Amino acid sequence: MKKSIIYLSLFVCFGLSACHESIEDRAEREAKEYTEKNCPTPERDNSILDSITFDRSTHTMNHYYTLTGAADDTAHFVGSHPEMHEALADAIKNQTSNKMYKDAGFNFAYEYRSLRNKHLVLFLDTVKPKDYK
């Protein structure tokens, strides 16, 4: 009887520890689940969220968008855009849904492509911890 209780206890302990998910595993899983369930999103503010992925090697949550309508214009994206970088950093600062990833120091990358020309990247930016903390 004592042996079976000990074995059962060990099984429960090891079983629970085996279920523990690393933050990288969770980020990868959540990005995949969100993309499968919600993407592409309906158009909002001239953009469509196509997918989210997680890159383990750089600890980066990648967000891929397609721009539509008036935003799908190369003239808007000539040169650098510190105001867009700042707006993305502010949005990340204010998001509570990403708190765990922010606390872990993840990067958040954004790629915006043209609807008219899917091969054309209009804007690419990465927000790093120093930008949102």
List keywords for this structure.
single chain; 133 residues; alpha+beta; four-stranded mixed β-sheet; 5 helices; globular; disordered N terminus
Q: Brief description of this entry?
A:
The chain has 133 residues and is α+β, with helices and mostly antiparallel strands.
Report on this model:
- By secondary structure, the chain is α+β, with helices and mostly antiparallel strands.
- The protein is 41% helix and 24% strand.
- It is globular and about 50 Å long.
- Residues 1-18 have low confidence and may be disordered.
List the helices and strands and how they pair.
Blueprint: H1 2-18, H2 23-38, E1 47-55, E2 60-67, H3 82-94, H4 99-103, E3 107-114, E4 121-127, H5 129-132
Terminal-residue CA separation: 55 Å
**Overall SS class:** alpha+beta
Q: Could you give a short account of the major beta sheet?
A: 4 strands, mixed
Relative strand content:
15-25%
Strand order, biggest sheet?
Answer: 1-2-3-4
Overall mean confidence score, pLDDT: 87
Low-confidence stretches: 1-18
Total beta strand runs: 4
The number of helical segments is 5
* Proportion of helical residues: 40-55%
Radius of gyration: 20 Å
Question: Shape, please?
Answer: globular
> Order of helices and strands, N to C?
HHEEHHEEH
